[in-house]
Design a protein that fits this description.
- It is built from eleven helices and five strands, in the order βαβαβαβαβααααααα.
- By secondary structure, it is an alpha/beta fold.
- Strands 2-1-3-4-5 form a five-stranded parallel beta sheet, with helices on both faces.
- The N and C termini lie far apart (about 50 Å).
- Keywords: DNA-binding, Phosphoprotein, Transcription, Transcription regulation.
- This is Response regulator transcription factor.
Amino acid sequence: MSGPAADRVRVFLVDDQQMVRGGFRMLVDSQPDLEVVGEAGDGAEALERLAVTRADVVLMDVRMPRMDGVEATRRLAAQPDAPRVLVLTTFDLDEYAFAAIRAGAAAFLLKDAGPEELLGAIRTVHAGDSVVAPSTTRRLLEQFAAVLPDPRGAAEQPADDRLAVLTEREREVLALVGRGLSNTEIAAELVVAETTVKTHVGRLLAKTGSRDRVQLVVLAYETGLARTT
């Protein structure tokens, strides 16, 4: 028998295919530390249900009727104490998935990922792990890096403004965060204490207005910092 409900990660499922949701529910509920607390067939329904359902992690499909996963993720991310969003897609290179990550999703995973990879991704996202995970998230960012808009363009001017307030060391840390390094790895790279790296990351989040570490990674790619290291 599983442990107390309070100790479990609360997972919410959003997909327009009921059979897909059923499969995810069986897998998640088979784990003693995870439980499905609700599900929805599109983004609009998800927002309605999540308004009255406490969840830690949302498994979010991107292509759905009425409201897609990108818009739902954007609206969720704007809320205080929002659940972490793990984007699921059928396509390895999906502009919708990339848009969802830019909108505030914590990670991206293919629907055909193995059970252990999916379960591991849920736990990683919930823990707010310092390394960008799962690995497909980093690959997606790398593939899109070459076609991102010029960061000097009008649409990307806010990103330039955010970088302008950073110190040289903070830019170094941001570049290493963009490469997917953990605080421990960054500390070793820069030969500083890990607590110092944590302080820099905290300042980066505050100065750039980024919601979490994944948003810092996106910023590093958009501005070219991750591509110059």
